[in-house]
Amino acid sequence: MFAAAGDAMLSHGMKQAGNISLNHLQEVIFAILNPWVAIGILLLLAFFATYMTALSWADLTYVLPATSLGYVLLALVAKFLLHEHISLLRWLGIALITGGVGFIAGGPALTQHHDPVPSEPAAETQATAAASGVKS
Amino acid sequence: MKAVYTWGGILAITFASVLGDVLLAHAMKHVGDVGALWRKSGLVAVIRRTLGNPYFLLGVMAMAVAFFSLLFALSWGDVSLVGPAAASLTYIGNAVAAKIFLHERVDRRRWIAAMLVAAGVALLAG
User: Fold this and answer.
1) B residues 50-109 lying closer than 8 A (beta carbon) to A
2) DSSP label at A33?
3) Residues 6+ positions from B122 with CB-CB distance below 8 Å
4) What are the residue ranges spanned by the domains of chain B?
5) Is B110 close to A89, i.e. CB distance below 8 A?
6) Under an 8 A CB cutoff, do B120 and A68 touch?
7) pLDDT by residue (tens digit) across B73-126?
8) Which of B43, B79, B117, B121 to mutate to test the interface with A (most CBs of A within 10 A)?
9) pTM tops 0.80, yes or no
10) Is the ipTM of this complex over 0.85?
11) Residue A114 CB: number of other CB atoms within 10 A?
């Protein structure tokens, strides 16, 4: 979620800043001062922090696919806020990602090496947390 | 030659970001449950313990390599090829690497999920 918002703000800010020529690389530094870009960077940092937090209690093969929901979110933001056109092929992509994430969300979040497999309700709570909190 | 450089770049991105993800995941398993640690010792302890983990630093470095590989690949190929191809391959590569190096139980459910997400990302980003 944070990454989707961060990316959107980054691209908005960079368009505001104008194209950066290779001869003027120092302009990249000044781009940071653009409030949209700054907010975007902060959001990406927030995404990274939440991603690390999720990795501390769940498997990589669980967290990573869940972060792909960010692509879906980004597409929906583009559709409803920016009024971009979304082709049939992209809707198909959205459906595939959503289906894939639904697949893992139904299973255990963490490989248990020593402890018994967590009970169903615990797995569900974690799945919900991953879907709503982790983003991207 | 252009195609060779482009796909070489795509493979470099995939390799570096899979390596980075595996190192970061390993580091965070080492740090332990961040929520519990935060409640017990505070945020500063969480940050200090994370940044002090050598695997975390190596993971961040691998991510930086992945980023520069992306810049390299983009200088040879179109973003509409490089972006989705690298992203898709990363999902598949991560499933393989997590099974081998992190010993995660990648069951049929997770393989299918990785495939579906990889296909979906390729369609969406392409």
Assistant:
1) 50, 91, 94-95, 98-99, 102-107, 109
2) T
3) A93, B84, B85, B87, B88
4) 2-125
5) no
6) yes
7) 888 888 778 888 888 888 889 888 888 888 888 788 888 888 888 888 888 776
8) B117
9) no
10) no
11) 4
